[in-house]
Amino acid sequence: MQMGDNHRCAWASSAPDFPDYHDTEWGFPIDDDRRLFEKLCLETFQSGLSWRTILTKRENFRSAFQHFDFNKVALFSDKDVEGLLDNKGIVRNKRKILAVINNAKRALEMIEKEGSLAAFLWRYEPDESTLPPPETQTTCEESVALSKELKKRGWQFVGPTTLYAFMQSMGLINDHAEDCFMREEINKARKGFERPS
């Protein structure tokens, strides 16, 4: 679909790799545990940085973290951590790397208890009628509640702003601008999406 930049969310024209990400990924509802875990991890690495930095390194992150297979990441050793700290293709922040390994272990615990990550995370989908206009906030009541619950369960780097960005990108919220041509596409996708239980 060919559209001028003025028909997309403003941020989508701020970097060369953003339009494709905006048009094909951002905001579509996801119920795949591995993809949800990947996004939580990438949001962890984004903390304090720009999303573009992470997006341009995404394939490197996937390769370094076993394509975010939490079963494998949970088993990472000190030697694996050393290797990651030497990997110039990713963000080499030890606290964030350790947080991802910790969160993989917490993900396994959650799946055992809740059945899936998707079933748990989608419980925090906000009621659309309670949300303000798109692009006007960086947290919501549900991202605050989810942050609190994940921290209680031992997850790290899961603040309310990080989780709101996660909700936007994984389709728990449609935060495309009112005049963005993708807003209606995402509304359709969310309407036809079967919420995991």
TrEMBL record:
Keywords: Glycosidase, Hydrolase. Its EC number is 3.2.2.20. GO terms for molecular function: DNA-3-methyladenine glycosylase activity. This is DNA-3-methyladenine glycosylase I. It comes from Marinomonas primoryensis.
